Amino acid sequence: MSFAMQTIGLVHSCFREKFGIPRQSGLVAEARAEIEILPPFDRDEAFSSLESFSHIWVIFVFHQCLRQKWKATVRPPRLGGNRRVGVFASRSTFRPNPLGLSVVKLDGLARRQGHLYLQISGVDLLDETPVLDIKPYLSYADSLPQAVSGYAPRAPKAAGQLVFSAEAEAQCQHYAQGYPQLRALIENLLQLDPRPAYRAQTGEEGEVYAMRLLDFDLKWEVRNSEIHVLRLDSTG
Description:
The protein is mostly beta strands. It contains 4 helices and 12 strands, in the order E-E-E-E-E-E-E-E-H-E-H-H-H-E-E-E.
């Protein structure tokens, strides 16, 4: 059987490319986004009482993986990229149906120029991600303290100390009015070490990395086991 589904909304996220996105939602509270609800689903009554919930489930499409074939086994970054597990024992994007599921904090609903937006944080969502459904998070049913989490039993450890260059520090202060949590966002993202798993595992250093974040190309490198934030190149 096959099913046709409609996009109910589009994500406008601080993440403009896949590289550097947290591998799970909730790991970086400062990672913010909005879901623009599309007509005819943007009716106020369709979202009545949603604001009484602190968190929501977002069901979405891995839209940049639509042309890629699914894989029966994958190499989770959590296992260093060296061990294969079944795709259904992972959260890989290379799935028979490229669907994602994230729980995010609901910060509010807003209307601007006639458009309805859900303001969310703690996201792991790429900009322009199509949203298929939204459901309220129920703490008594969705949180299971006794659950066993296999090869990912706990949140990843912080990667190491961060050092901001004088240039990067000045840039964070300069952009603070438009992006008040920019420095904290950078710190918490890089503490997750977004480098490819094999490079993080081998401790390889010396390469300058870049990721698209908001309106910037964030440049950093690893030296002497420290993460050095070099600069933010504006893309505007």
